[in-house]
Write a structure and sequence with these properties.
Radius of gyration: 23 Å
CATH superfamily of the largest domain: Glycosidases
Number of helices: 17
Shape: globular
CATH class of the largest domain: Alpha Beta
Largest sheet: 9 strands, parallel
Strand order of the largest sheet: 11-10-9-6-3-2-14-13-12
Number of domains: 2
Number of strands: 21
Length: about 500
Amino acid sequence: MKTLSASFLAIAISLSCLRSPESAAGSSPPPEVRGTWVTTTANDAISTPEKTAATMKRLREIGLNTVYVECWKNGYTQFPSKVLEKTIGVDRRPNLMPQDPSETPEATRRPARDLLQETLVEAHRNGLVYIAWFEYGFMAAHKSTDNHLRRMKPDWLSRDQSGNEVAPNGFVWMNPLHPETRKFLLDLVLEAVDRYDLDGIQLDDRIVWPYVTMGYDDYTKKIYAQEHGGKQPPTDYKDPAWMRWRADKVNEYARIFVAEVRKARPGLLVSLSPAVYPWCYDYYLLEWPKWAAWNEPISTSTPESLTARWDEFVPQVYRMNYAAFETTWLDQVEHMKKLGGGRTADLIAGIRVVGDGPDSTWEDLRRSMDLARSTGGGGHVHWFSRGVLDLFPEQLTEFYNAATVGQAPHPKFGADWRPPPVPLKRGAERNGRIEWSFSEVPAGRYQLFARSNGVWTLVPREHNDPANPQAIDPTVSGTELLPPEVDAAEFHLDRRPEMSTRQLNTPAK
C-alpha cells in the first residue's frame, strides 16, 4: 500500500472528465442555466455550515445547476482576504459589524467564516456550478453603515455637487474612475480566482457610475479638466456629453477588468448581472449590451482566442407580474440583437421571485421561464434562493423534472464538469492520527477536504506549484493521515489547471 502524507493536498495526473449516470444514459435535457442567487440578506439559507449543506443539496434536488453566491458585501469580503487586510486592516467582516440593515444582532455576533469556501465545497459536492458573486462592486457601504472603507478611504468616494457621499440610491460608492479603487476591486476578484477553485465570477449592477448625479469629487473633476482644456464638469448632470464621458470611463474599466480576469484564468466564466437597458444608461451610465459585441484580442502578446469577452449577461428583469416581465425581457432581447452582436444565447433572464413588494405567483414565474426559453435565451436565474426553497420548491421540482429526465447541463461546462467527490474510508489509529484510505481514484488533479464539526477544511499541501503537483497512479490504493476529530474526508476534482488553458464553449448566436 502506498501511503501519502496529508500535505499531499493536490493529486495530479492527466485531466479527464467523470461521466455522470445521467449523461451516460443520454437522458439529460438541453443545456440551460438554471440558477439562483444565494445571499446572507433576508434569509438563513447559509447562516450555518449545516444550513449551507442542506441548501446546496436541496437546490440540486429541485433541479438547479448553478449558484451565484455573495462574497463581497457592504465593504467586506465573505472570505479571508489579504487584499482587504492590506487596504483597511481587517481580512473580512469583523464580529458585531452588520453586513446589511436586515441583519439581526444575533447574526453580527457569529464568528467570521470563510463563507466562500464553505459554500463552494457544498455546491461542488452536489454538482452545482459555482459563480462567486461580487455583489457590491464599487459600492462601499449602505448609507447606514459606518464601515472601514468609508472611514479610511474618503478620497476614494464619489460625491455629488454638494459634496454628499450618499447617492440617491442610498449607498456610498467608490469612484469607478479612481485608479486605486479600480485596482482594489480587480485585486479582490483576482485573489479569489487564484485561491479558490471557482467556476466563474459575477459582477452586479454596481460596476457602473454610482448615479447620474455623481462625479463631482475632486479626483473626477481633475481628470475631466485634464481632458477638457481645464474646464470643469457641467453643472447639469444630464448634459449628454458629460454623460457620454462618464459612460466611456465605465466601458474602459469593464474592458480592463475582463481582460485581466481572462488572462488570469481563461476558462473562468465571467458574468454580469446588470439593470435593464436603457434605464441603466439613463441613471448609471451603463451600456452593457455593447459589451457583448466586444471580441478583440486582449493584447498582441496573448493568443488571438483570448479576448476581452464577457461570457454571460443576466439582466435583472425584476417585475411584479408577467406582462411587465414580457415587455422588458423582449426589449433586452432586441437590444442584444442590435447592439450585442446577436448573442441572445448568452442572455440569461434574471427573474424576481421574492423581494420588495408581493411575491411572484407560480403562473407568472413559469411563464417567465418559458418566455426566456422561447426567445433563445440561455436560461434563467431566480432572485433569490428563498423563493426557490420556501415558495415554489415543489412546483420547480415538477417543472424541471430532473429526477426523471436528468439534470440540465450547464451550457458552458456540460454535465460532467463537477463530478461527485471521491470519499475516503476511515481506518485505524496510528500515532495519534487516523488512517483514511482510498482506491481507484479516477484520473485528475484533486484537493483533499476533511470535515470536523460540520465544517469542510482544505488539507494543506507542501508544494504549491501547479506545474509540479504530487501525483499518484489512479489505480493505486493509498492512505491519508488526518487528525482524530475528522469525521469525513473527500477528494474533490480541482479544475483550475484545466481552467488555465481551456476556452469556454462559444455558443451559437
